[in-house]
């Protein structure tokens, strides 16, 4: 499964190759903090429980001509959503560590730095 590290996503967001960032977390989590410019499709609980139909109802809102980065809390449920999108023909990847990883990257936390080293090897 393809994944992108927070620092890589940040670089792409600053460059001319910005992907479509699909945040699948519940609306209240999204409202408390999200990646700027991301799109919220609050399907986290459904995808987590194995219901793909809720994500499929959002496909018309997800551009096919752009790379898609899927974001959830920690990256685990986003992997499932990424797999669904890939099966539908999207060039989709998962944000490694989810919003937890993104926030750690933004804050320069020690936990993020350790995780980042591990992501580079695994």
TrEMBL record:
Cross-referenced SUPFAM superfamilies: Rhodanese/Cell cycle control phosphatase
Protein name: Rhodanese-like domain-containing protein
Residue ranges occupied by any Rhodanese domain in the UniProt entry: 15-109
UniProt superkingdom: Archaea
CDD domains for the chain: RHOD
Record PANTHER family: FAD-DEPENDENT OXIDOREDUCTASE (PTHR43031), OXIDOREDUCTASE (PTHR43031:SF16)
InterPro entries for the chain: GlpE_sulfurtransferase (IPR050229), Rhodanese-like_dom (IPR001763), Rhodanese-like_dom_sf (IPR036873)
